[in-house]
User: Fold this.
Amino acid sequence: MRGGTRARTRSRVRSGLAVGAAGAALVCAAGCGGGGSATGDGTVRSSWGDPQSPLEPANTNEVQGGKVLTMIFRGLKQYDPKTGEAKNMLAEKIESPDQQNFTITVKDGWTFSNGEKVTAKSFVDAWNYAALTDNRQKNAPFFQDIDGYGKVHPASGSATAKTLSGLAVKDEHTFTVKLRTKFSTWPDTLGYAAFAPLPRAFFDDHAAWLKRPVGNGPYLVDSYTRGSQMRLSKWNDYPGEDKARNSGVELRVYTDNNTAYTDLQAGNLDLVDDIPSAQLKNVRTDLGDRYINQPAGIIQTVVFPMYDPTWSKAGMEKVRRGLSMAVNRDQITEQIYRRTRTPATDWTSPVLGEKGGYKAGLCGAVCTYDPGEARRLIQEGGGLPGGKVTITSNVDTGSHRLWMDAVCNSINNALGDDKACTVNPVGTFADFRNQVTDQRMTSMFRSGWQMDYPLVQNFLQPLYYTGASSNFGKFSDPQFDKLVDEANAESDTAKAVATFQEAEKILAEQMPAIPLWYQNGSAGYSENIADVELNPFSVPVYERITVK
Amino acid sequence: MGRYVIRRLLQMIPVFIGSTFLIFFMVYALGDPVAALFGDKAPDPATAARIRKDLYLDAPLWKQYLHYMGQILTGNFGTAFNGQDVLELMADAFPVTLRLTIVAILFEIVIGIGLGLLSGLRRGRSVDTSVLLLTLVVVSIPTFVTGYVLQYLFGVKWAVVSPSVSPAAPVDELLLPGVVLALTSLAYVTRLTRTSIAENSRADYLRTAVAKGLPRHRVVTRHLLRNSLIPVVTFIGTDIGALMGGAIVTERIFNIHGVGYQLYQGILRQNSPTVVGFVTVLVIVFLVANLLVDLLYAVLDPRIRYA
Assistant:
């Protein structure tokens, strides 16, 4: 439930600012490519952003801190970088007779890099720490499915229990989890960093641990200068299969992704995982096949305030569908994003794959540009409320202003009325977020979603289920809720996915949110390194990178 | 002299309180920063409330300000959102920016005054015209353009320097950023010096000096330049503060982790302890620099006396 795209925290941090757009002036002439000197010691020099919070696993909800966690931690499950499938990592097996009570067996032979054994207790302690309200962990809601969460993390006031009653250690390698409700795909969520095990050192000397985190992943933290750089080296005794193929990684904090890109061109840096938008025109000529542009688990939508009766009253679904048909997604993704966004045809993401629940074209005609039909539907539905709509978003980061103008122009052109849609820019991200959570929106507003784990459930339930945590438009449909509940209780994955897709079809009819486009992850790398891939969260898979 | 300094120092107190309150109020007016910490996800109410309490955000503004000022007086500048002490951030950032500022000021002094003297002594000649034209060009190009262009040319195209500055920020890596930072002010210094020299070279005392038969270099350095530098010193003095706080663009372009970087990061995250703390120190730098400039007048021009 972290942020999607630039304005959500994780990408806020990674996104370069419009100020830096001046870099556009510097068209890289032919032959300016990298080259440069190899580091010689086999380390990868990679761009980074200052993590927003201390590097605790359950307190990191943005991509920059997440990068480090994927290098120094391994959880029960690990998402396959290619397919996104959740595979057992530290889990020997996770069993459940009823989709509500789970017995988890942890593999033997795993240790933290300080020599301490990874046991069932390492997990239970870490999860109890994460859920307890006193510890102020931002990812605490990830543990809300576990029984007893309400006691350790009440909505207000202080906790009445220190530990989750749903967690119990059976023996050194086994523990049990009792959930509040049935949730068949719950084990697949365990690849998220918040579920990582923690060594005793984390609890015994917290300040020292934060200065130099100790985990159980393929890398060790050598040194960490907050705000400027982190050096990691390969952990030679790492017990897992996915050992690092390079000798280490140096993460350097950049405030301007244009500078990182320039450093890459000068051979001063090996890997940039955020290509500045101003450089998208030249990146192919600059880097050739050393440029990666692939789907990430991020979808951009504009949401209708369904808590406002003018938008939720009967008949308005036609207006909402009509507005969706008035957006020329193809043209906007081509002109503004140079194909680093893909027009959306459902409410999930291509990274899920067909098996995982992504279904191209599920939205059907209502997500296809058709100005004539759009005009007709909006008229049938009684026209736009008050004759006009606005799109609201923060405009301090990213290129939100650009696409909002484009979407509005598209709507205006379709309706033949150049005052039908206007943009309502909000100065800062925090202000925008406050307005959204306080339900002060009167018309459409931007909402990006970056998945927490590659499950279709994560794209639907938190966003559109009645009363869900990120259901900012307060959409509510009993049939949708019923289908989601059914899907969660279904033990057969294929059937569960099909049920989720049934629920998604309700979204196509009701259109509480217009899907705009799927966002891609992009990266560029130098000639010094090879085998660079991005995982479904658009984070480079560092341990697989080889240095020439 | 001593009384004058004390009076000036006392005057700094209301200026200091007023400016910190303004900054505090402006950062506060940006809204509640806690919501942004949770990204696009709805903030968990219990956790958000805890964080607000930790940051003292649940108290009214005046209470927050008093609390903050109380902390500052005991040398505690608060904690940034990433858990680092603001004092620690300052200890990292200020030396870097100070080095950058010194490099920039040196460029201004050496090249700016040098060119100004040259063109002032040769008014109307081709040297003068070309210097004037050159400074006009420099003043009219924004810093981020010169920054990116020079970075690209020196860093990528000719590969003579590294395009970005390493975290340690040694002086040799700061030469190019220093030039970029200094350029606009350098042009002003040149023009100021030139005008001042041009005026003073017609002054009576100068004619006397020449008539006494003093050697030319002595006439120029002791009599002409020294008297012409008063407006220039004023400009450079105020520029120290401006350069230290206004290096945001340059620091971003060259990835220098100095004051500009911390301020930028602080504003982006609405991290009031960072922003107010850094600005407070900058306010002090400004005030002290201004005082030093005023005291320097007396050194440059013996007619000026402070009682």
